[in-house]
Specification:
The strands form two sheets. The protein has a three-stranded parallel β-sheet. A two-stranded parallel sheet has the order 3-5. It is mainly alpha-helical and 325 residues long. It is built from eleven helices and five strands, in the order H-H-H-H-E-H-H-E-E-E-H-E-H-H-H-H. The chain is extended, with a radius of gyration of 43 Å. Pfam families: Ribosomal_L27A. Keywords: Ribonucleoprotein, Ribosomal protein. Belongs to the universal ribosomal protein uL15 family.
Amino acid sequence: MPPRLPIPLAQAARCCSSPASRPQAPTLASLFAALSLQPRTPAPTSTTTTLTTPTQIRSASILAALSDNKGAYNKRIRKGRGPSSGYGKTAGRGHKGQKQHGKVKPWFQGGQTPLIVSHGRHGFINFRAPKMMEVNLEKLQKWIDQGRIDPTKPITPRELIRSNIVGNPILDGIKLLAGGKETFRTPINIVVSRASAAAIEAVERAGGKILTRYYTRDALKRLVRGEVVHTTTPLPVGPEHVKSVLGRMRHEARVSGGKRVYRLPDPTSREDIEYYRDPAHRGYLSHTLKPGESPSLFFKVPGTETAEVKAVAKEKADEQAAKLF
């Protein structure tokens, strides 16, 4: 430790020192300047004075204005925790009654006879019903006149969707309606998901042909992208057809270079099968009906029993008559 100077000598040294070398008390501005956020700049290599561009200086006061992003924090409502919360005392439940003390079902109407009892149920919404894209004959004739659709070639859902006659997005199928059927005059060969009876009559009156086929939403999307070949021939049913179908699919996969091959689906629900088995709907499965057979899978046409069924019924009737006599 260096030896201390006597007090008179220390005072003399402080008096004789220059003002620049004296230590000064730090000011508030200098403290904030030291806390300011500035990017570090490299030190100059020479002693000559250089001109530098002004840098951005951000005050340290922004530390007091920090906050979460909008929507990052939601204040939780605390009910029944005093009047300061705005939901104190009754906690928004009101005064007395079942609604304050217990749970009330949403259809409770205060004890009166419910409206569904006094008036009954009206209407029904089938949320599982397929959503169809609709096309009127008037608009179809307009598209043909403008050259957007070629009537000399078969018109499939691929041509209808690509011509923008139906809007986006792609739904579960396309239904042909008879709006403007008086002006429809072009013979066409069209395949759609469904068609009204008046639309079928108008198309056939003009010399055209209409066929209804089963589609799904994914099948229509693949058909538009060209990932599947359109066909109106259903997949054969039975174990004897498995080898031929698999061989055909493998051959198509080899031809396409190993690309995955899709096929158009066939209906599986009873309602769809019955619709496309009906000749009145021009269904593509109507050729599977036997003479005198009904499109329904449940009901049978009266008087269409086979000879074997009639013979068995006659034998039973004869046996019952023999027992009685």
